[in-house]
Specification:
Layout (H helix, E strand, L loop, with lengths): L1 H7 L5 H14 L3 H16 L5 H13 L4 H44 L3 H29 L3 H16 L4 H18 L36 H21 L4 H16 L4 H15 L5 H13 L7 H12 L6 H33 L8 H26 L15 H15 L5 H19 L1
Helix pairs in contact: 2-5, 3-5, 4-5, 5-13, 5-14, 6-12, 6-15, 6-16, 6-17, 7-15, 8-15, 9-14, 10-11, 10-13, 10-14, 11-15, 13-14, 16-17
Length: 446
């Protein structure tokens, strides 16, 4: 313990924390829950850079924000330790490995995606994607739909987006309004969503302990808040001005900025919105290509919302923003990634000091509880859409069940869901097994 205490008396420098944040970017598999668990084990239990109560307090705030909560938590902790420089370093390193990997995979996919063996792998992956999305709906729904009001909101959200093609932003807005009204008329029905409560576990003294006062850069002031918002607006504006000569890149910047502010409830919640815009409205990629990107996003490190890198890459190539397809793809991927993650830095750097000044348990409000319920219905819609494209691969909107039913894909999806739901098999293992099965199927049938 003596060595541990003395180590804590020498806070790590910005450069000394670099290896950890870089490593986290390469090993951050398992979705937000797995990524948060990794940070807790390393930062709270092992390195003791932050106490458990402060860790959970930061997490409570991040859970209320649009965007990927795991990367926002990393930004928050690094910001507490080393200010803006630490926040930028941790945030960029969190998604940089996934950006490089997904961009590389997109290039390979466009070059060799029509090779039979590659097609076989994706044939096996698609049923796994159906199971993964359906499992996400079940996992979120089982935790959030605790009464008939919330079940009703989820059903209405599904009906609205599936049968009436209502846009995702309007569903979020309607759910939020229902939550505001319902929170007043039936408050007990909208108090089921709570933040992560404090834990009684103790792991010894921490660098940022329960009673450690916020460092100077983390103290709230209206001047600092206004400055951070202005910096964000300027950065966003300069980036948009730089893209003004290319209509595709301009639309990407505008679209992914909206997506970033609508990512309430996790990546699965905003995927229908990304699909509606990227596939149906702008034609940056096809629905099947979107599924393939989602599958690869599940098997690469970083937050699942990194699928926007895939969307941007394929969109840049499809719309020929540059003559060279690789340059076009990288540019599209860069634009999509930049505008998706820029707001996450704003939320922490601008809102963090306010959170630190009012430290305490943060709860989900009634509107957020209602939005979470609506998100379940939206995710079920996404699962139905993916299932339709997978089980009836040659179907069209005009003939939704044309081309015959793929029973093998349906069986694979059912088995994958059972593995995830009943046997708690890791998502990456399920996708890997399905990919191997698809490869074997391609070898046998060829």
């Amino acid at each position: 313990m003596t060595d541990d205490v003395s180590a804590l008396q020498r806070p790590p420098s910005l450069g000394q924390t670099f290896p950890y944040w870089l490593k986290l970017g390469f090993i951050s598999f398992g979705g937000p829950a797995g990524q948060i668990a990794m940070m807790h084990q390393e930062l709270v239990e092992k390195r003791r850079w932050i106490s458990e109560r402060r860790f959970l307090h930061a997490l409570n705030y991040c859970m209320l924000l649009p965007g990927p909560e795991a990367i926002q938590l990393a930004i928050y902790i690094a910001w507490l330790m080393h200010g803006v420089a630490g926040a930028v370093m941790a945030g960029v390193l969190f998604f940089l490995p996934a950006f490089v990997l997904l961009s590389s995979l997109a290039a390979v996919y466009l070059s060799f995606g029509d090779v039979p063996l590659v097609q076989g792998i994706f044939y096996g992956i698609k049923p796994a994607v159906v199971a993964v999305v359906l499992f996400a709906a079940w996992r979120i729904g089982s935790k959030s739909l605790k009464n008939e009001w919330l079940h009703g909101i989820a059903v209405l959200a599904f009906v609205g987006i599936f049968f009436f093609q209502i846009g995702f932003p309007w569903i979020v807005l309607a759910a939020g309004l229902v939550g505001i009204v319902g929170g007043r008329l039936a408050p007990a029905k909208f108090m089921v969503g709570g933040g992560h409560g404090a834990s009684s576990h103790a792991h010894g003294p921490a660098l940022i302990d329960d009673d450690t006062p916020p460092p100077p850069h983390a103290r709230f002031s209206w001047g600092r808040l206004v400055l951070m918002v202005l910096v964000f607006v300027v950065l966003w504006g300069l980036a948009m001005v730089a893209l003004r000569d290319d209509p595709t890149l301009w639309r990407m910047g505008e679209f992914f900025t909206k997506a970033a502010f609508l990512t309430i409830g996790g990546a699965y919640a905003v995927l229908p919105y990304v699909y509606q815009g990227a596939v149906e409205q702008y034609g940056w990629l096809t629905g099947l290509q979107m599924m393939d990107g989602l599958a690869l996003g599940e098997t690469t490190p970083g937050p699942l919302i990194m699928v926007v890198t895939w969307v941007g890459y394929l969109g840049g190539v499809a719309k020929e923003v540059f003559e060279d397809p690789v340059a076009a793809g990288v540019m599209g991927a860069s634009v999509a990634t930049f505008f998706t993650f820029l707001p996450s830095f704003l939320f922490i750097l601008a809102g963090g000091p306010l959170v630190e000044s009012t430290r305490g348990d943060l709860k989900f409000t009634a509107p957020l509880t209602a939005i979470t319920a609506a998100v379940v219905g939206v995710i079920v819609n996404l699962a139905v859409f993916f299932a339709w494209h997978t089980f009836w691969p040659r179907a069209t909107p005009a003939e939704p069940f044309a081309g015959g039913f793929d029973g093998l894909a349906a069986v694979a999806a059912c088995l994958a869901f059972v593995a995830l739901w009943k046997y708690k098999v890791d998502i990456m293992k399920v996708i890997a097994v399905c990919a191997l099965a698809g490869l074997i199927h391609a070898l046998v049938t060829s």
